[in-house]
Amino acid sequence: MDIVRRIELDAGHRLPEHQSKCRHLHGHRYAVEAAFRLSGADELVKSGPETGMVADFGWLKDVMMRVIHDPSDHKMILSIADTDALDLFVEAADRSAIDAAVARDGYYMGAHRLGTALYIIAPHPTVENLALHWGARLRAELDKPGVTLSAITVYETPNCKAVIRYEEA
Prior knowledge:
The protein has a single domain, classed as Tetrahydropterin Synthase, Chain A. β6 (147-157) and β7 form a beta hairpin. It contains four helices and seven strands; from the N terminus they run ββαβααββαββ. α1 (57-72) packs across α4 (127-141). The chain has helices at residues 57-72, 83-89, 95-105, 127-141; strands at 3-13, 26-38, 75-79, 107-111, 117-121, 147-157, 160-165. The longest helix is centred in the middle third of the chain and has 16 residues, at 57-72.
């Protein structure tokens, strides 16, 4: 049994190698749905404050807000390889620290030129790469024993989404 929690966030991005309008800076209202389940044979918690649940939805929301929403909401999500866009927002002197953070952590967050809040990742910020990135971060940050991420769905628009299903969940 899976339970699903949904959050939404607003962010800008661009796909510099795209052959259509997506190569321009633009924004989306992303929706992220994460499915969780208990690992092992139990489908529901047997005792305690979460009796009859997979996990408390409030706890799931807190984790998703901390790991996905708060770092990304109202940010410009760019690839570290998108040097043209980065040159608009980042001083040359800051680039090595940003490169190091992305190499070490998989992402960088910070405000730069024009007060623009940036969220920088290694790959181009396609919906597929955002699903991979946010799914990996969410899996790494789950801190409740027995609860696993079984799937993540990221909607770039109401009609376009990427879905990752984790087999070992």
